[in-house]
Design goal:
The chain is an all-alpha fold. The protein has 4 helices and no strands.
């Protein structure tokens, strides 16, 4: 049950000869893994960085009562536009709504919401009740937009599934009728 040591010198020589190739493969593997990680990280950053932040947008130096009233009107109009866009996307029309189309509209509306938030500095803590309520309204518009986006995505999947199942059932019925 002993191990033959006669093969050991030949095996050591083979390992020594293959060492440069192993190193090359190890380096190649490390470069490949690093490149793959960089691509994945780049994709994540691009996904997270699609919308601008409020820090990069135009801000008013002083937010007076006229600016607050204008922001309130802008948020009210924006909410109406979000509801309209969501309703149109969810309308029962053929074909099923494409979630990508609504996502483009949603990104535009979210950018407008961020513009209002930045302009009136709604992302900064203040003691003013009106600004706090406007900040709540801006968050509400964001949540409404997010809810419509999820509804459109879910609706699209369900409508396509139902349409496919209906088509398959009708085809089976036609086949059955032809066989009679």
């Amino acid at each position: 049950m002993g191990v033959s040591t006669g093969d050991q010198p030949g095996r050591d020589e083979e390992r020594r000869q293959l060492r440069p190739y192993r190193r090359f493969l190890a380096i190649l593997l490390a470069i490949s893994i690093t490149g793959l990680c960089a691509l994945i990280l780049r994709g994540i950053v691009r996904t997270l960085d699609r919308l601008p932040s409020t820090e990069s947008m135009q801000r008013l130096e002083v937010v007076d009562s006229r600016a607050i009233a204008a922001c309130a009107e802008d948020l009210e109009r924006l909410e109406a536009r979000v509801r309209k866009a969501g309703g149109e996307a969810l309308a029962l029309a053929e074909p099923a709504p494409a979630p990508e189309d609504f996502e483009t509209v949603a990104n535009t509306l979210e950018t407008e919401r961020l513009t209002v938030v930045a302009r009136c500095r709604l992302d900064e803590p203040r003691g003013d009740v009106a600004l706090e309520e406007l900040a709540r309204a801006a968050v509400g518009v964001e949540e409404l937009l997010r809810a419509y986006t999820l509804l459109v995505q879910r609706h699209s999947v369900e409508v396509r599934t139902e349409s496919r199942e209906i088509g398959e059932a009708l085809e089976r019925a036609r086949t059955s009728l032809r066989a009679r």
